Amino acid sequence: MNASVAVMITVALLAAGTFALRFAGPALRTRAGVPVRTEKLMGTAAVVLLVAVAATSALTEDQGAAGIARPVGVLVGGVLAWRKAPFVVAVVAAAVVAAGLRLLGVP
C-alpha cells in the first residue's frame, strides 16, 4: 500500500468517526438522559480545561518560564473578556500590553 493511500484512508476514517460522533449527540439526546449534576460537571470541566491550556500557553515557553510580559498581557486580555469587551479589543489590548512591557525591557 502506498503511503499517500494510507494517509487518505486514515483521513477518511477520522472524518467518518468525527461525523458519527457529532451526529450521535443530537440523535441520542432524547433517548439518553444525562443527570443535571453531570451536565454542570461537564460545563465546569470544559472551563477548567480551557483555563489549563491558556495558563500553559501563557506561562511557559521552550520548556521554561515565559517571563512576565506574556502572562500580564494574557491577564489584561482575560479581564477585558470577563468584563464583556469585544474580542478584538481584548486581543489587541493584550498584545499592546505585552509588547509595551517587552519594549520597556521586562522579560
In brief:
With 107 residues, this protein is mainly alpha-helical. The chain has 4 helices and 2 strands; from the N terminus they run ααββαα. The chain folds into 2 domains: 33 residues; 73 residues, no CATH class.
What does this protein look like?
It comes from Rhodococcus tukisamuensis. Pfam families: AzlD. Keywords: Membrane, Transmembrane, Transmembrane helix. This is Branched-chain amino acid transport protein (AzlD). The chain crosses the membrane at residues 6-28, 40-59, 87-105. With 107 residues, this protein is mostly helical. It folds into two domains: 1-33; 35-107, no CATH class. The protein is built from four helices and two strands. The chain has helices at residues 3-28, 36-59, 69-82, 87-103; strands at residues 60-61, 64-65. Strands 1-2 form a two-stranded antiparallel ribbon. A hairpin with a 2-residue loop joins strand 1 (60-61) and strand 2 (64-65). Helix 3 (69-82) packs antiparallel against helix 4. The longest helix is centred in the first third of the chain and has 26 residues, at 3-28. The chain starts with a helix and ends with a helix.
Strand order of the largest sheet: 1-2
Number of strands: 2
Number of contiguous helices: 4
Q: Quick check: average pLDDT? A: 91
Q: Which regions are unreliable across 5 or more consecutive residues at pLDDT < 50? A: none
Overall tally of domains: 2
Task: Give the CA-CA distance, first to last residue.
Answer: 51 Å
How would you describe the shape?
A: extended
Q: How is the biggest beta sheet arranged?
A: 2 strands, antiparallel
Radius of gyration: 21 Å
Measured as a percent range, the helix fraction is: over 70%
Order of helices and strands: HHEEHH
Strand percentage = under 5%
Q: Briefly note the structural class of the backbone.
A: mainly alpha
